Amino acid sequence: MTRIIAGALGGRRLATPSGSATRPTSERVREAMFSALETRLGGLDGVRVLDLYAGSGALGLEAVSRGAVHATLVEADRRTANVIRRNARELGVDAQVDIVAEKVRSFLRTPPRAAYDLIVLDPPYDVPNDEVSGVLEVVTRPQWWGSDGVVVVERSTRDGAFTWPAGVEPLQDRRYGETTLWYGRPHD
């Protein structure tokens, strides 16, 4: 069972895609991630979130529950994207959430209407680090990422050290068993 951990929707259950290759971020890792983000950002109230490789949508929906004003969730699998839509509707946050059923690289071809304050990448573990770095090179450009923003990348601990592209200052990394979270922010 996947559920929203905290905020206005805390405790509410999320449907997860059946028969899909999604790997929802565990509650323990989500709690640690959002605790660190709330400290770093001074809370999530009014934050705009971009959740790439959204899977079950748990990260973007958790951010909205904790006060994010808007979240864009990008998921390539249409059936999985429909599960996210249903979750957003049942949670009553569908007006705050855009669900895009498109591959991340395709989605990134069109610049956003406004920069994001928080960008989360949780690609399948079999996506190579160089592909993730290519996505980061796009989303860490000024039109995508606010100057006070934070980006979080979730990767398999087995992948070893993660290398940030130019323009990103590494902040910290935290290991939770098989999962490591890498935090960064813009810098000149």
From TrEMBL:
One of its GO terms (molecular function) is nucleic acid binding. The keyword Signal does not apply. Keywords: Methyltransferase, Transferase. Pfam families: Cons_hypoth95 (PF03602). Its EC number is 2.1.1.171. It comes from the Bacteria. The keyword Nucleotide-binding does not apply. InterPro entries: DNA_methylase_N6_adenine_CS (IPR002052), RNA_MeTrfase_RsmD (IPR004398), SAM-dependent_MTases_sf (IPR029063). NCBIfam families: 16S rRNA (guanine(966)-N(2))-methyltransferase RsmD (TIGR00095). This is 16S rRNA (Guanine(966)-N(2))-methyltransferase RsmD. It comes from Mumia zhuanghuii. The lineage of its organism: Bacteria, Bacillati, Actinomycetota, Actinomycetes, Propionibacteriales.
